[in-house]
Amino acid sequence: MPELHHLLVFFAASALLALSPGPDNLFVMAQSVQSGRSAGLLVTLGLATGLVLHTLAVALGLAALVQASSFAFTALKFVGAAYLCYLAYKAFRAGKNAGCEPLIVSRGKLYRRGIIMNITNPKVSLFFLAFLPQFADPSRGPVVPQLLLLGMMFILATLLVFGMLGVVAGGAGERLRRSERAQIVINRIAGGVFAALALKLVLTER
């Protein structure tokens, strides 16, 4: 296994990466503002589940196949972009909510949104493929268990950071939703964020 100080450096780097603006944390904040703190936490759990799959893909060598296959890379990103466009459409159609309540979406849907958002972004697999092996040391034992451990640590850092962002954004959304006009603005902004993320994903190159 990697030495303790290497693991601590890896965890700190993972937390900083989770804090840096990116599609996943913007997605969490948009959902939290639109649908409340619990929505952000459920989406975060979904994203973390997607990261488990990416970790397994790196450990088993599947991520290398995505990197090598132009078709697989393109198919994944267009599926992800189409789903984000669907969410943007739903957000633009939402308007204001009766009683100034958050936009209601089932727990299962929110959780699945996080998973789909994460696994349909091929850049995540390529990032893991480049990032995790840097902290694995073949001289300290089999590499696959090390990659799995590093992946779990990255997921833990992501859960902590994204969970915090979701709580903060959800609190801000709760205050804004006291105004019906603000509710409409929130939904429009969320729709714009989803549409922008879809465009960014379509323009992504290997």
Account of the protein in words:
With 206 residues, this protein is mainly alpha-helical. It has one domain (4-16, 39-203). Helix content is 81%, strand content 0%. It is built from 9 helices and no strands. The protein has helices at 4-19, 23-35, 37-60, 62-68, 70-94, 107-119, 122-131, 143-176, 180-203. The longest helix has 34 residues, at 143-176.
Structural class: mainly alpha
Q: Tell me the overall shape.
A: globular
How many discrete domains? 1
Portion in helices: over 70%
Reading the helices and strands in chain order gives HHHHHHHHH
In whole angstroms, the N-to-C terminal distance is: 31 Å
Q: Segments where pLDDT lies below 50 for 5+ residues?
A: none
Radius of gyration: 18 Å
The fraction of residues assigned to DSSP E strands is under 5%
Please state the average pLDDT score. 81
Helical region count?
9
Largest sheet geometry: none
Any descriptors?
mainly alpha, 9 helices, globular, single chain, 206 residues
Layout of secondary structure:
Layout lengths: L3 H16 L3 H13 L1 H24 L1 H7 L1 H25 L12 H13 L2 H10 L11 H34 L3 H24 L3
Helix pairs in contact: 1-8, 2-3, 2-8, 2-9, 3-6, 3-7, 3-8, 4-5, 4-7, 5-6, 5-9
